[in-house]
Amino acid sequence: MREPPPRSKAALSEQEFLAALPAMNTTATVLAVLWVLRNEPMDMRPLGHYPDRHFTESAPRRLIRRFRRRLRRISRRIRARNAALERPYPYLDPENIENSVAI
Predict the structure, then answer these.
(1) Which SUPFAM superfamilies does the annotation name (predicted)?
(2) What is the pTM of this model?
(3) Neighbour-count burial of 26, counting CB atoms closer than 10 A to its CB (0-12 exposed, 13-18 middle, 19+ buried)
(4) How do the pLDDT tens digits run along the chain, 103 residues long?
(5) Which of 81, 75, 88, 66 is nearest to 46 (CA)?
């Protein structure tokens, strides 16, 4: 908003209303940023998936396997719960969570 909100309930003129709205380029920039941030990345890696073998020792690899098992169990529980819901909530399903920040 480019103008403060009205202080009274009096009707605004069209000119006053339009003057209060943000500039068109500001609105376009905000919409473009929101569009980019809301789209899923093409190379999305779900939580717990490590395509590169950074860990070669047995202890970290064992922990990764255990972590993945727990994530699969959580994912199954969420999908089972969502199957019974009128409006499912898939957003915290580990399969839908990015492995790392992708902004």
Answers:
(1) Lipoxigenase
(2) 0.61
(3) exposed
(4) 677 777 888 888 898 888 888 899 999 999 999 988 877 777 788 899 888 888 889 999 999 999 999 999 999 999 999 999 999 999 999 999 988 876 6
(5) 75
Residue that has been written with the tokens 């909530």 in this structure? 89
The pair of three-digit structure tokens given for residue 55, joined into one six-digit string: 């860990």
Residue in the block written with tokens 């957003």: 91
Burial class (CB in 10 A: 0-12, 13-18, 19+), 53: exposed
Question: What separation, in Å, do the N-terminal and C-terminal C-alpha atoms of the chain show?
Answer: 27
C-alpha to C-alpha distance for 42 and 34, rounded to whole angstroms = 17
Among 88, 70, 68, smallest CA distance to 78 is for 88
